[in-house]
Amino acid sequence: MLELRPNCECCDKDLPPDSTEACICSYECTFCRDCVDLQLNNVCPNCGGGFSPRPVRPAKVYREGVGLHYHPASTVRVHTQYSATELSEFSDSIKTTKAENR
């Protein structure tokens, strides 16, 4: 079950469960589209992987037992432990390798 973190780990922008701006890596690290494209260069600063759009969990219950009502998004805000300089240096070092080849 995806955690659906509530914010960008870099700029702290709110990313509600229905946000189409939320991007995640395979470890569910969560960043907004602007940070992924402009600062991180599609490189997760935590694992080095790439990002995909985070799916939107339906707010409406279409089938019993599934949806935000049964599995709410996380309210725990997560922040990167790295400085802007460290983020840039790390992403610059591997951004030329396609995510699927890292």
Tags for this model:
elongated; alpha+beta; 3 strands; 102 residues; single chain; 3-stranded antiparallel sheet; 8% strand; 2 helices; 18% helix
Biggest sheet, strands in spatial order? 2-1-3
Task: Estimate percent helicity.
Answer: 10-25%
- In total, the number of domains comes to 1
Tell me the total number of β-strands.
3
Organism: Amphritea atlantica
Protein name: DUF1272 domain-containing protein
Structure description:
This protein is 18% helix and 8% strand. The protein has 102 residues and is an alpha+beta fold. It has one domain. Strand 1 and strand 2 form a beta hairpin. The chain is elongated. It starts with 21 loop residues before the first strand and ends in an 8-residue tail after the last helix.
Write a concise synopsis of the structure shown.
With 102 residues, this protein is α+β, with helices and mostly antiparallel strands.
Describe the SSE topology:
Layout (H helix, E strand, L loop, with lengths): L21 E3 L5 E3 H7 L12 E2 L30 H11 L8
Antiparallel strand pairs: 1-2, 1-3
